[in-house]
Design brief:
The chain has one helix and eight strands. By secondary structure, the protein is mainly beta. β2 and β3 form a beta hairpin.
Length: 102
């Protein structure tokens, strides 16, 4: 099992939500079931923080942060765990395909 940690930068807490990270399970739902990890930081001040999640080889990970002023900017980033590292994927469709080939 890989312990994933991603540093996050400071942000305007009035405009953005807390950063989030999740494993996506496509086995029962083609849209994906999200199991959220944790964010360690101070949302009241919009401080730097760390996203934390445990994942296994081949797991699909999503990371994002909601933008309240520009909802079109709410598209998360998708990754797959390979050799204990996150490999960036281009889209949720690619994430779904990678999960099916696991």
């Amino acid at each position: 099992m890989a312990h994933i940690e991603i540093n996050t930068g400071s942000y305007n807490q009035r405009r953005f939500s807390r950063p989030w990270i999740a494993k996506i399970d496509f086995s029962q739902n083609p849209k994906g079931d999200y199991k959220f990890g944790s964010w360690v930081g101070d949302h009241n001040n919009g401080s730097d923080g760390v996203l934390v999640i445990n994942a296994e080889e081949g797991d699909v990970i999503a990371q994002g942060q909601k933008d309240f002023r520009q909802p079109k900017n709410n598209v998360p980033d998708y990754y797959i765990v390979k050799n204990g590292q996150l490999v960036h994927l281009e889209s949720k469709a690619e994430a779904y395909q990678m999960a099916q080939n696991k």
